[in-house]
Amino acid sequence: MPRVTEFAPLERAALADLMQELGPDAPTLCEGWTTRDLAAHLVVRATRADAAAGIMIPGLAGHTKRVQDRVAGQEWSTLVRQVRHRPWWAALSDEAFNRVEYFVHHEDIRRAQPGWRPRELSEEFSAALWSRVRAQAKLVLRKTPANVSVTATGFAGGDQRGNLAGGDQRGNLAGGDQRGNLGTVTAGRGGPAVALTGPPQELMLFLTGRQPHALVELAGPDAITARMRTARYGI
Questions:
Q1: How many alpha carbons lie under 13 Å from residue 199 in its C-beta half-sphere?
Q2: 103 pairs with which residues across the strands?
Q3: SS3 of 64, please?
Q4: Sheet holding 193-198, edge to edge
Q5: Domains of the chain
Q6: Whole-angstrom distance, CA of residue 20 vs CA of residue 227
Q7: Which end of the chain is more exposed for a tag (fewer CB within 10 A), N or C?
Q8: Are the C-beta atoms of 46 and 90 separated by less than 8 Å?
Q9: DSSP for residue 195
Q10: How many other C-beta atoms lie within 10 A of the C-beta of residue 92?
């Protein structure tokens, strides 16, 4: 079987399938947003460079919201179709810019639903996410007053449904990884030792502001770990 090297299209297709299945009013982990709002965000980000700038630039946020509200008002089937099919020119940079975006927003929908279970990703996808986790950790933890070791593991005895062996939905993982750690990156501005450990996909969710829903272990001084659990990290 050939190795998969482009994951953004796969995550986008799965996300669109899930949106179609759940409908426009399903909850997401994005505060205040339903699946309709999230779909509109993705369409604006992909097709309206003028409005997408407001995602990062506060002064343009009003324009972004107006455009996004108009996009959200479309028929649901049209909106999902626009999520599923990016314009041809956007596909040229799809993997570089959207691998993490679509993975995280796919999980934003999945993990907002009752009875969700974590997925066991392929080794290739886990490795691809880990390459981004390293940079994300350096970026978002740079002001953390600690020496943070971020270690990526695999699933310990997970089954094909993505259930964790010995884990629970409160975010606790059991033991180590029978296949060994994928690697460790150090972040923070120095100080007490803190260890953040979990599969790459869970680390990515933690480091993009989904801490309550990320299945990781976080060990270190209570004051610092409490701060990390509530910090407003972003993509």
A1: 29
A2: none
A3: helix
A4: 183-187, 147-152, 193-198, 217-219
A5: 8-110 (no CATH), 123-230 (3.30.1050)
A6: 37
A7: N
A8: yes
A9: E
A10: 11
